[in-house]
Amino acid sequence: MAQTLPKCRNIILTLLIFSTLLQAQSHKFANKLSPKSLGFKKEKLTHLHFYFHDIVSGDHPTAVRVAEAPMTNTSRTFFGALDVMDDPLTVGPEPTSKIVGRAQGIYASASLTEARLLMTLNYVFTEGKYNGSTLSILGSNSVFLKVREMSIVGGSGLFRFARGYALAKTHFFNLSSGDAVVEYDVYVLHY
Q1: How far apart are CA 187 and CA 47, in angstroms?
Q2: Buried b / exposed e along 59-72 (16+ C-beta atoms within 10 A)
Q3: What is the pTM of this model?
Q4: What is the rounded CA–CA span in Å between residue 23 and residue 157?
Q5: First to last CA, the chain
Q6: What is the per-residue pLDDT across 115-140, written as a single tens digit (0 to 9) for each?
Q7: Which of 20, 73, 99, 116 has its CB surrounded by the most CB atoms within 10 Å?
């Protein structure tokens, strides 16, 4: 009897160690999947064209300053300014044009030497086929260049797994009020 007790303990201990190892191996952090397993079909390239209305003046601004550095108002580039936006996206450049979405996010004056904004925002679409879908933009915007390019880093809805770029061209800029209308051509790869 004295010899069977150590044998049983060894067997039980071995089984416990083995079951712990099996359980630890059954949890995975990552798996390789095919796009088809998620219901995605062929990848496609979509071109979107719209106008972005950034209104900072008047009684109903669509972009407001929420923070600034002590030096912002003495800097020629407004370095350190941080603004939050909920700008309408429209089919045409007129303020009365049909709204197809909103540009929601932040931009910050991020250069000491030129008018350059760090843009981080979502295009939130509210019309047509893309209603409820979003595109996420991250990039540098040198506002006085004729054409600026920013990265599309993701999306949701019909734009899941999105990647691409957005080209921005100033259509109208009011130097005294700061209001602007920017034309966007967006090229996005998605499923």
Answers
A1: 5
A2: eebbbeeeebeeeb
A3: 0.81
A4: 36
A5: 69
A6: 999 999 999 999 999 999 999 999 99
A7: 116
